[in-house]
Structures are given as structure tokens and as C-alpha cells.
């Protein structure tokens, strides 16, 4: 059960809300895998995706999730929309609202953009990534994947490595994992990690091996070259050699540790190809789970909309 | 026509008076203070149970005219000032065109003359077009009545040019206001720190402010200019000012009500009405600011009244302009958070909101004495209410204080003996 009209971040989600999404995602997964029949929970409902930033996985996962639930899904092609004529986000939202669209999925380069949209519309807004703030549905699919593989969060050691400072994925994952009782360690170069992130309830280090040691889950993050003004590390060669995750570093993790990555991966930069394609990697399964989790979220928001 | 304000508690810091008395006004001037059996009043204002104080002076206001009349104009800004108890306001030069020559100064005088009578004192730019490259027509603007110079909205980043400005302005004996922000260190949308981390918003470090505070104190020390530091927000700035004052460097400093009432923990809802520059800092800074007011490290409470249109604020947090309105909430917030809490006495508060600003500007205002112009504010300090932007007469409704319970409401505002605002 979800308490609010919108899903804007993990920061304001309760443990019970996260768990109900994860539990429902489990039931949805067979549909994504083709072994269950599609549903009509969102029949006659309209969903729109508004992606002010590029995306393959997230946008299509929402699109497929909506279709598997029987909804009509359209995309506002930002590049060919009135956004290019300078229409504000609030006005765009109000316009879509008046067309009877009940679910708006937004990705935007600025923190709080989803909150702004939610304030201006009656539709349910789902944050598909806002600036360096949050990417809650990515975190939920990560949490579901971890839960599926490990069975519980309590006392689990999760290590997140790479470009933490620019990562909304890391922030949402940290919020969720800490609430669910996992130990979270962050590692990366000094310019891409911040000691102040410890206030989120995790540990921060620049020592990769120490960070990975005994981890049950190792999550690598993409170096967000597009979000960097430059100069945060010398070059990708040095980065991959000092902070890239390879088999040698991964060997420090616990025996049955899993490797995750929100993708797309910069192959050979933050993750070495031999690791990406090895059996410890669950990166491809995250994609499937991503559709299941978004189906669960849409279903629960629709249940909440009928309830009110 | 004689006007008499009877039975109010006169609070006049300049003469250190705090007593219940009557004030007699004729031809715009105060003609007597105290019981007067010879006089017969044509009009009486019963101020029993209320404060009677010298008209408040706001040294830091953005009136937005010329150029941004959709945010505010001189008429609406003056109406907001009167409602907030202000009889004199200084308007900042970041208009379009910039106040950088005597023509724009005269335009402001002309528009103010059509408003409600609040004294509007223009502040001239330091550099031409606020481009940070060459000095504006400071001397000509002084001839036409500017009260100070400022680059408000940005810093003069070239230290050499700032030094020249201080040297040049000194003989004119007006203050130079410093907007302290090193542009190379700024660039975020809220205070850098734990809460910026929590909310995923790019931070503005306190060093952006403190570096320029330190620089300008040093420049003031060597040039002897009357430096006034605008909108101080950090504990570090306070420490720098304290040290400077202990060394006998003659500088003054202001803060605004939001810096001693709010901290950056409230930004989690991405409400752009809580976005201003400098940004809300931490609880520790808020406490430091209160102590600095008590100790006299901070001389003045100003509002940095910065109205914006609703549409301009109803955008993404990073995109929204900095600034909040302040004229209509300043006294109540200051009284509630400083006097009700025993941080300042009534005399000290009025000193920081009237007498001291007048002294910094070198104007004959900020005191209720016989022979002075009757700029007077009468305040019902018992009145309790919730702040509601719908009641603002300013065009700007951008306040972070919506719903906050405060004490103190302006009953009357008088300029030159004329009632320009009455509740």
C-alpha cells in the first residue's frame, strides 16, 4: 500500500511501502518473463513519459510495465514538444493533466523537478530521476534484486563504488538500504565521494579493497561523464586502474557476493568486461526486475487513486 | 493642524528613552513630547498599549523599477514598506537600466514622489552597468541623492577595482555596501552541507561569502572607506567582523530576519520560496546570528526584500531566481524571535531597525525628538497572527514564512506627520 499520490523519492518512503512494492514485483515478474498473462489493472488509463534527459532502460521499463498492465502509454518527445518553445514544466504538466493523463513519469536534470510537477498536477507523478537527488524506481529494482538473491536486508553488507557524488541512484539506494537495515559502504576517488555522505548512515572510504572486503553485494556506478564539469579525476585510464572494479578486487568480497550496476556500463572504465559477463553479475536480471518493480508501483498507485 | 499620539510607549534608542508619553506633531514636525495642557489636538491617535517608535528604516530593498515592474514597482514597494512600518527604504541598483548614472536616480525620485510618501533613497551601482569593469558615475549620482553605492546581486570580483571604488567614494562620505559572494566559489542553490547532501541540491559553501567579507574588511582597513557588509549569513562572517571591530576597523554589517529564524533543514520540499542568496544556513549559524545581534557585531536588521513573480518561482529549484520578500514581515519576525525571546531589548531592536541604519546612512532620521520630522511607526505588539502572503500589498508573495505565528502588527505609519498607513 502506498500512502501518497506520487512516488518522488525513497527518502520519504516507509519500510512497509518499500516492502509492499517488492512483494508485488515478485508476482509481476512472470508476466515480464512471458510466463504469466498480462493484466488489465490499468485498462483505459493513460501514462505519459516525460524524459528531459536521455534514457533507454528506465523509459522503456515504464512503457512496458504500463503495457503489461493494459494502460495506454505515450511519450512526450521533449525534443519536438513545446518545451522547445520555452513552456514551463508546470504549464506542460497542467496541459497533460487536462488531457486526462493519470500517470506522469518524469526524468529531469534538476533536483526537485518531480516535486514541482507533482505540486502542479492531479496525476500521480513518478520520479524517474531528478538531477543529483533521487532515482527511486532504480533503487526499488535494486532492492528487489537484492531481496531476491539474499532473502533479507538485515545486516547485509552492501558496497557502492564509483561516482557517488553525482549519483542519484546511489542516494536512493542508500536511503532504502539504510532504512531496511543493511550496512552500506561507499568508495571512490576523493572528488567523487564526500565524507558528508556519512550522515546518510553509511561509511565512506577511498580504499577500494577495504570497501569490497566481505561485501555481500557490490554495486558499481557509471562514471557520469555528462554530469561532470571536468577535472574530477585525471583521465579514464587512471580511473579504471585505480578505481575500476576487476576480478582481483572483487575477490575480496564474500564468497557468494553479487555484482550490480544500474547500467549503461562504461565497459572497461568502472567495470572490467570479464566481471560484467561473469556469473557474479546480475546486471541483466536487474533490467527484468526493473519492469516488474514499475508494474508493482503503477498498480499500487492505481490502487491508492481508487481508494481516495 | 495638530496631531497628537497619546498614551503609547515611546521607544527611542537615540535618546535612550522608553516611557509612556504623548507626542505632538504640527507641520510635519514633532513639536512636543510629554503631557501638554496648552495644546489642543485636531486629531488624536490613541496608542495606549502600543509601541511608538521612530519610523523604521530598511537599508536593503529591491524595488525592481525600472525594468522589472512585474515583480514590484516603486509604488507597490512603498505600500509594502508602509504596511511593514518603514518610513525610509534604500533601493538597490540592480534594475534595468542599472542605477549607475544621475538620470536613473532622478527617475526613481520622480516615481517615489508619486508613491505614498515613504522616503526612497536610491543606492547607486559601484560599476557601470554592474559589469565589474569600470566605476559608475558615483560623484554625479551623489549630487542627485544616492545614499550609498553597492553592486548588490553580485560582488565586484576585481579586488583592485573594489579598492579604487572605496578610495573614490570615501570623500563623498557615503557607505559602500558589499554583496559578499565570490563567484568562482558559488554556483549552487542552497547552503552546502548535510542538508544539501540529504536533498540532493548543489550547495553554496560558506567560504563564498567569507572570502569576500575578509577581502573587503582588509580593503576598508587600508582605504578608510565606510564599508557596510550586506546580508551576513554565516558564523564565519561574524567571527571575521568581530575581529575587525576589535581592531577598530570602522565597518558595519546587516543581517536579515530569515537568517536568524530559519535554517536549511526546511528545504526538503524544494519550495523555491525558501531559496535566497546567501542561502539559509545551519542551526548553528542561526544561533550565531542571534548572538551577534545581541553583542552588536551585527548593527542592522535589513530585509533584502526581493520580490519575484509567482511564475518565476513556480519552476525547477535550480532554475528559480534567488530572493524572498521581507518588508511586511520584518518587524513581526524580529520582535517575535529577538525581543519575545529576550535576546534583544525593545530599545536594541529599534536601534537596529531605525537609529543605526540612519547613522550608517548619515541621515537626520531614526529618532523621535522635538524639532525632527515626524516619521513615526505605531505598533500593536500584543497582536498575534499567522503570516499570510495573500494579505501582502507587495506584488511579491514569495515568502518562506507562510503560516508562521508571529507577534506584532503595524497600526500606523506616519511620514512627515502624515498617516500613510493605518491598519
**Topology as H/E string of chain B?**
EEEEEEHEHEHEHEEHEHEHEHHEHHHEEE
Which range best describes the helical content of chain B: under 10%, 10-25%, 25-40%, 40-55%, 55-70% or over 70%?
25-40%
Number of structural domains of chain B: 2
Task: Summarize the biggest pleated sheet of chain A.
Answer: 5 strands, parallel
Distance between the termini of chain A: 12 Å
Greatest interface and its participating residue counts: A-B, 24 and 19 residues
CATH class of the largest domain in chain B: Alpha Beta
Provide a descriptive summary of the structure in words.
The complex is a heterodimer of chains A (308) and B (423). With 308 residues, chain A is an alpha/beta fold. Chain A folds into two domains: 15-134 and 287-307, Aspartate/ornithine carbamoyltransferase (Rossmann fold, 3-Layer(aba) Sandwich); 136-283, 3-Layer(aba) Sandwich (Rossmann fold), CATH 3.40.50.1370. Chain A is built from eleven helices and nine strands. A five-stranded parallel beta sheet of chain A has the order 7-6-5-8-9. In chain A, α4 links the parallel β3 and β4. Chain A is globular. Chain B is of the alpha/beta class and 423 residues long. Chain B has two domains: 2-51 and 372-393 and 401-422, Urease, subunit C, domain 1; 55-361, TIM Barrel. Chain B has twelve helices and 18 strands. In chain B, the strands form three sheets. In chain B, strands 1, 2, 3, 4, 5, 16, 17 and 18 form an eight-stranded mixed beta sheet that branches. In chain B, strands 6-7-8-9-10-13-14-15 form an eight-stranded parallel beta sheet. In chain B, β2 and β3 form a beta hairpin. In chain B, α4 (159-169) crosses α6. Chains A and B meet through α4 of A and α5 of B.
In short:
Chain A has 308 residues and is of the alpha/beta class.
Amino acid at each position: 500500500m502506498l500512502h501518497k499520490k506520487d512516488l518522488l523519492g525513497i527518502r520519504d518512503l516507509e519500510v512497509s511501502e518499500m516492502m509492499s512494492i517488492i512483494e508485488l514485483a515478485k508476482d509481476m515478474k512472470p508476466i515480464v518473463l512471458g510466463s504469466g498473462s498480462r493484466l488489465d489493472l490499468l485498462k483505459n488509463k493513460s501514462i505519459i513519459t516525460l524524459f528531459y534527459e536521455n534514457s533507454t532502460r528506465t523509459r522503456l521499463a515504464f512503457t512496458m510495465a504500463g503495457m503489461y498492465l493494459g494502460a495506454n502509454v505515450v511519450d512526450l518527445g521533449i525534443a519536438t514538444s513545446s518545451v522547445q518553445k520555452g513552456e514551463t514544466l508546470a504549464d506542460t504538466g497542467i496541459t497533460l493533466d487536462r488531457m486526462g493523463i493519470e500517470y506522469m513519469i518524469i526524468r529531469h536534470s534538476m533536483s526537485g523537478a518531480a516535486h514541482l510537477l507533482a505540486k502542479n498536477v492531479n496525476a500521480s507523478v513518478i520520479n524517474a530521476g531528478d538531477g543529483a537527488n533521487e532515482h527511486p524506481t532504480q533503487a526499488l529494482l535494486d532492492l528487489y534484486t537484492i531481496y531476491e538473491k539474499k532473502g533479507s536486508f538485515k545486516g547485509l553488507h552492501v558496497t557502492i563504488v564509483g561516482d557517488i557524488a553525482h549519483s542519484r541512484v546511489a542516494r536512493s539506494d542508500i536511503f532504502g538500504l539504510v532504512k531496511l537495515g543493511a550496512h552500506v559502504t561507499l568508495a571512490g576517488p576523493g572528488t567523487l565521494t564526500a565524507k558528508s555522505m556519512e550522515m546518510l548512515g553509511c561509511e565512506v572510504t577511498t580504499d577500494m579493497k577495504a570497501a569490497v572486503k566481505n561485501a555481500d553485494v557490490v554495486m558499481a556506478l557509471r562514471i557520469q561523464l555528462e554530469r561532470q564539469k571536468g577535472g574530477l579525476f585525471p583521465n579514464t585510464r587512471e580511473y579504471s586502474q585505480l578505481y575500476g572494479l576487476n576480478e582481483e578486487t572483487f575477490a575480496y568480497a564474500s564468497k557468494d557476493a553479487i555484482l550490480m550496476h544500474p547500467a549503461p556500463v562504461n565497459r572497461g572504465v568502472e567495470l572490467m568486461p570479464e566481471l560484467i559477463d561473469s556469473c557474479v553479475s546480475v546486471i541483466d536480471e536487474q533490467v527484468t526486475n526493473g519492469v516488474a518493480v514499475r508494474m508493482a508501483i503503477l498498480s499500487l498507485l492505481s490502487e491508492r487513486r481508487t481508494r481516495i | 493642524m495638530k496631531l497628537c499620539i497619546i498614551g503609547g510607549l515611546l521607544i527611542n534608542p537615540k535618546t535612550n528613552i522608553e516611557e509612556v508619553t504623548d507626542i505632538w506633531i504640527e507641520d510635519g514636525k514633532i513639536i512636543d513630547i510629554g503631557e501638554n495642557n496648552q495644546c489642543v489636538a485636531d486629531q488624536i491617535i490613541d496608542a495606549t498599549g502600543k509601541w511608538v517608535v521612530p519610523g523604521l528604516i530598511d537599508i536593503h530593498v529591491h524595488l525592481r523599477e525600472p525594468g522589472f515592474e512585474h515583480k514590484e514597482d516603486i509604488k507597490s514597494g512603498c505600500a509594502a514598506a508602509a504596511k511593514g512600518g518603514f518610513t525610509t527604504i534604500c533601493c538597490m541598483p540592480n534594475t534595468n537600466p542599472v542605477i549607475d548614472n544621475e538620470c536613473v536616480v532622478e527617475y526613481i525620485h520622480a516615481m517615489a514622489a508619486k508613491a505614498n510618501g515613504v522616503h526612497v533613497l536610491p543606492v547607486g551601482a559601484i560599476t557601470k552597468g554592474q559589469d565589474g569593469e569600470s566605476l559608475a558615475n558615483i560623484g554625479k549620482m551623489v549630487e542627485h541623492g544616492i545614499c550609498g553605492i553597492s553592486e548588490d546581486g553580485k560582488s565586484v570580483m576585481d579586488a583592485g577595482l573594489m579598492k579604487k571604488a572605496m578610495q573614490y567614494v570615501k570623500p563623498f562620505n557615503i557607505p559602500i555596501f558589499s554583496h559578499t559572494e565570490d563567484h568562482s566559489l558559488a554556483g549552487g542553490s542552497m547552503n552546502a552541507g548535510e542538508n544539501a547532501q540529504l536533498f540532493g541540491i548543489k550547495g553554496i559553501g560558506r567560504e563564498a561569502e567569507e572570502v569576500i567579507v575578509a577581502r573587503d574588511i582588509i580593503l576598508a582597513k587600508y582605504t578608510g572607506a565606510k564599508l557596510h557588509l550586506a546580508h551576513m549569513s554565516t558564523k564565519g562572517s561574524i567571527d571575521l567582523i568581530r575581529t575587525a571591530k576589535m581592531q577598530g576597523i570602522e565597518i558595519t554589517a546587516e543581517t536579515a530576519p530569515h537568517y536568524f529564524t530559519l535554517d536549511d533543514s526546511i528545504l526538503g520540499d524544494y519550495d523555491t520560496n525558501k531559496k535566497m542568496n546567501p542561502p539559509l544556513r545551519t542551526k548553528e549559524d542561526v544561533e550565531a546570528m542571534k548572538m551577534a545581534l545581541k553583542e552588536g557585531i551585527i548593527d542592522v536588521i535589513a530585509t533584502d526584500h526581493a520580490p519575484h513573480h509567482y511564475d518565476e518561482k513556480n519552476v525547477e529549484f535550480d532554475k528559480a531566481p534567488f530572493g524572498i520578500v521581507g518588508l511586511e514581515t520584518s518587524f513581526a519576525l524580529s520582535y517575535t524571535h529577538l525581543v519575545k525571546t529576550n535576546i534583544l531589548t525593545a530599545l536594541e531592536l529599534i536601534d537596529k531597525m531605525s537609529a543605526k541604519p540612519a547613522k550608517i546612512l548619515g541621515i537626520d532620521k531614526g529618532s523621535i525628538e522635538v524639532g525632527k520630522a515626524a516619521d513615526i511607526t505605531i505598533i500593536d505588539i500584543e497582536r498575534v497572527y499567522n503570516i499570510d502572503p495573500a494579505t501582502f500589498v507587495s506584488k511579491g508573495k514569495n515568502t518562506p514564512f507562510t503560516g508562521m505565528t508571529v507577534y506584532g502588527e503595524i497600526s500606523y505609519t506616519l511620514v512627515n506627520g502624515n498617516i500613510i498607513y493605518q491598519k
